Amino acid sequence: MWKTAFQRSSFAFALLATVHCGPGKENPPGDTGGGACTSNDKALRLGKLVNPEDGRVLDKAIVVIHEDRISYVGTDEKQIPCGASVLDWTAYTGLPGLVDAHVHFTYQTDRAPGTLPWTRAPWLMNNNPYKLLDLARGAALATLKTGVTTAIDKGGSDFILNPLRAEIRSGKTPGPRMYNSIGGISNQKYPGAIPPDALKGWVQLQVLRGADLVKVWADGCSDKTLDCVPTFTFDELKLLVDTSHQEGLPIAIHAYHEDTARLAIMAGPDSIEHPEGLDVVDCGNMIDRGTIYVPTVDHNRYYKDNLVFFGYAPEMEAKFDAYIKKNLASVTQAHLMGVKIAMGSDAVFTGFGENTQELAWFVKAGMTPLEALRAATLHGAESIGAAHEVGKVAVGYYADIIAVEGDPLADINVVLQGVRKVMMGGRVAEL
C-alpha cells in the first residue's frame, strides 16, 4: 500500500514538473530530473506582432525575454524557458516600443499662481531643483504611457537629466529609456566669427557632462513673432558636426528657418529639427548625408491650443497655423523624395502625454500607417545611433514592446489612442 501511494505521489510530482517546465521541457537544463524548475525569464504571448521594417505580421507571436533583452521571437512554444513567467497579451497586437526623437523633460512648471511656464521653469531650476526633478519624473511617466519607450532629450540641465536617466535605467522611476543632450550649444557670446578652439571646447564639454548626443541651436527664434535669425556660419556648423563625430557622439541641429536649415543640412548632422521651407535640393542633400528629419509639426498645434497658458497674444494662433502649414508641406516633400523622417514631439510642460500626436500629421503628409510607424521606431533609433538595440522586436534588442487594441496598419489612431500595455526593458508599466 505504501509502495502504491509512493508511485502515485511520484507520478503527480513529475506531472507538476512537466507543467512548470513548459511544452517539451520535461528535463530542462539544470534540472536533476523530477524537480520543478524556475527561471527569471519572461515569455510574452501576442495575438499579432507587427514588424515596422517590412510590414510583416506574425500571428500568435511568442517573445522570450532574458533580463532586459529579447532572446527569442517566433511561434514555437518549445522556446518558452522552463519556469518562465508568461504574460498573456493575446488580445492585442504588439509593436516595438516607440521612439520620441525630441523631448525636453526639464521644461516644467508647478503652475504657481501668476506665473508663466517659460519664466517659471528657470526659476525652479535655480530655486527648487528637487521639485523640478519630481516634475520631470511625472513627464517621463506620462511619456511612457503613450507607448514611447525611448526618448531623446534635446536640451536640458545635466543635474536633472542625468539622475532621471539613472533612475529609469535602475527601475526606480518608470519612464522611457533616455538619451540626453546636456544643455546644448548656442551662440550667445560671439557677434562675429567664433574661434575654432571655442567650438571644439563646447562639444568636449558635452562629453564631460555625460551627454549621449550633441544638440546645437543654429538659429535664435522669437516666441512672439516666430521669426528666426541664424547664429552660426556653415563652417562653424561643419566644425561642430565633425568634432561631435570625432568624439563619438551623434549631433542634432535645431534650425527653424529654411536658410538656416540649408546650412545645417550641408554640415551633415545626424538629425535636423523643426525646419520648414525645404525644397528638393535640401531633401536630396539629407538623403546623401544620411540626415534624419525630425519635423515636430504637432508642437506648434500644442502651442496654438494653449495660448493663454503660455501668455501668447491671440494673433499668435494665425502665426502657428501658418507655420504648421509650411512645416507639413516640407514633410510631404521630404516623404515623397524618400527622406528618413523621425517622430519628435518637442514635448514641454503639459505636452507630455501627447507625444505620439505627430503620427497623425505624418499620415496627413501622405505616409501610410506603416510608414508612420517606421518613423516612430526605426528612424528615431537610427537618429541617435541606437538602431542596433531599440526600434525593433528582435533578438538582442531591448525588450521594449507595446500592445495596442486594433490594427495599427489600417488606422494610425490605434497607436494614438489604443495603447493598452507597455513594456520597457522587460518591465511592464502600470498604465
From TrEMBL:
Respond yes or no to whether keyword Hydrolase is given for this record.
Answer: yes
- Give UniProt keywords alphabetically: Hydrolase
Q: Is Hydrolase one of the keywords?
A: yes
Any transmembrane segments, and where? Answer: none
Amidohydrolase-related domain: residues covered: 95-428
Query: InterPro entries this protein is in?
Result: Amidohydro-rel (IPR006680), Metal-dep_hydrolase_composite (IPR011059), Metal_Hydrolase (IPR032466), Metallo-dep_Hydrolase (IPR051781)
Give the protein name, as stated in the record.
Amidohydrolase family protein
Q: Which organism is it from?
A: Polyangium fumosum
Q: Which GO terms describe its molecular function?
A: hydrolase activity, acting on carbon-nitrogen (but not peptide) bonds
Which domain of life does the UniProt lineage start with? Bacteria
A matching Pfam family:
Amidohydro_1
